[in-house]
Specification:
This protein folds into two domains: 141 residues, Roll (PH-domain like), CATH 2.30.29; 111 residues, PH-domain like (Roll), CATH 2.30.29.30. A hairpin with a 2-residue loop joins strand 3 and strand 4. The strands form two sheets. Strands 2, 3, 4, 5, 6, 7, 8, 9, 10 and 11 form a ten-stranded antiparallel sheet that branches. The protein has an eight-stranded antiparallel sheet with strand order 1-15-14-13-12-18-17-16. The N terminus is likely disordered. By secondary structure, it is mainly beta. The radius of gyration is 19 Å and the shape is elongated. It contains four helices and 18 strands. It is 13% helix and 42% strand.
């Protein structure tokens, strides 16, 4: 099995956590999987939450268009988007985000509105691109950590009658809004997140420095670890996912200076390469909590 898979490869996997499961609610859309991979997937299923409103279809004004599903995230009070165009930095504030997808679950675009200023509705287009992984730019330590999410690739954006390509960053006023945004894009519940000082693997060496480790619950209560491998290897920097049912055992040393060790089952090529993951956490309480969560899962 190749370590880099196409979106079709993910659709073929029977239990991939982020597959399209369009008509399932949070109660039935949880995730853990028998696959480990580098994420490159084109479909998603935003799970409803109590603070989002769902409209069944939306159409472009003045013309017929295929029906789409819309999930609105009302923000408290706003999100600030920032981007660079022609060397100039722009910042705009909006009070809601509409997550728009086609009926088959493919992400179409994000629409931002309810601005405090005079600027018009802002459209962030993902047509023809892979499912974007919301990238947290700062390792999470506390509520004071900036809630800034960006995307690793450029996308097309449109405001008024102007369309151009750029990399967008979303800065949320509150962590809860940032969490809901991640969950809707990833079609999963964020169970755990902690800042990592460093992650290494026995087989591949350095995996990442100063990143976040996320634990996601998707369909059928299945759990998957997600972290960004930003090492200096020749291969492109990307996200790595490790389903919890591919972890054989965990070792949590008593000394805080020692890394948490995850011994991986060689079920797939990427796991066979990594063999053992070493996680150095920024916060000792989070290190202990992570150990408890994984130990409970393995022992049950």
């Amino acid at each position: 099995m190749n370590t880099v898979a196409s979106s079709q490869d993910f659709e073929d996997w029977p239990d991939w956590p982020l597959r399209d499961t369009r008509y399932m609610s949070y109660a039935s859309t949880a995730t853990e999987d028998s696959e480990a991979s580098l994420l490159s997937i084109s479909r998603f299923q935003p799970p409803p939450s109590p603070t989002t409103s769902i409209s069944p279809t939306v159409s472009d004004k003045g013309k017929s268009s295929p029906p789409v599903d819309v999930v609105r995230v009302n923000l408290s009070p706003s999100v600030t988007i920032s981007f660079v165009r022609k060397t100039r930095l722009f910042r705009m504030q909006y009070s809601y985000i509409d997550i728009v997808k086609e009926l088959n679950g493919t992400l179409k675009h994000l629409v931002l509105g309810g601005s405090n200023g005079s600027h018009s509705t802002f459209l962030h287009d993902f047509t023809g691109t892979r499912l974007p992984i919301p990238h947290l730019e700062y390792p999470r330590l506390s509520e004071d950590t900036p809630h800034r999410v960006s995307f690793l690739d450029e996308q097309t954006v449109q405001t008024a009658n102007t369309s151009f390509s750029t990399q967008l960053a979303y800065t949320f006023d509150h962590w809860d809004d940032c969490v809901r945004f991640q969950e809707l894009l990833l079609s999963s519940k964020l169970v755990f997140i902690a800042g990592l000082a460093e992650a290494k693997s026995k087989g591949r060496g350095e995996e990442c420095i100063s990143q976040n480790l996320r634990l996601l619950r998707g369909r059928h209560e299945r759990l998957t670890l997600l972290f960004f491998a930003n090492s200096q290897r020749k291969e492109r920097k990307r996200y790595v996912s490790v389903p919890l049912n591919c972890i054989d055992k965990i070792d949590v040393p008593k000394k805080t200076s020692k890394p948490v060790l995850l011994y991986l089952r060689p079920n797939f090529e990427i796991l066979a390469e990594m063999k053992v993951l070493h996680f150095h956490f920024l916060d000792d309480d989070e290190r202990k909590r992570f150990g408890e969560i994984i130990s409970h899962y393995i022992e049950r």
